[in-house]
Amino acid sequence: MLKWLTSAIIVAIVATGCSTVARNETSPSPQNNGKVRVQQTEPRKKEIKNSAQVAAHLEQLAKGIHGVKNAHCVVFGNTAVVGIDVDANLDRSRVGTIKYSVAEAFHNDPYGVDALVTADMDLSQRLNEMGADIRRGRPIAGFAEEMADIIGRVVPQLPRDVMPREPAHQKSSQMNRSK
Length: 179
Prior knowledge:
Structural class: mainly alpha
């Protein structure tokens, strides 16, 4: 009798585990294919129609942050890049805090939510020069020139690729020989 009772319990457990009753927590509904729907809570980025107006708006927003001396903004398409000027004597952590504060201010702004913020002095100056070129009516040429300058600074110079210069007296003697 004990063997029969044990066998019945094992069969009951196996049968319970293999049941095909649909449960919400174990089988995904075919209607949503396992996808979760979430309501958008982030501010949506607005399409930039007047880039000069948006650039001025973001510059003023950045200048309103304590520690920002000046700001330069360039808008390309639907993306804004903002360079901020801060005191050169500040340590890295304080500069990072100011940059974060500017990003926080932009977070709630529909034009600034996806803006790029930099506190690099060289990039900020380059953005200023690009903005001046855009205002002068040379947006493409100004952008190309500044990008060439930026890339020229970023690309490393390998000592192996350097061609040694000939001393001046060797050049003049070679020129005399060839005549």
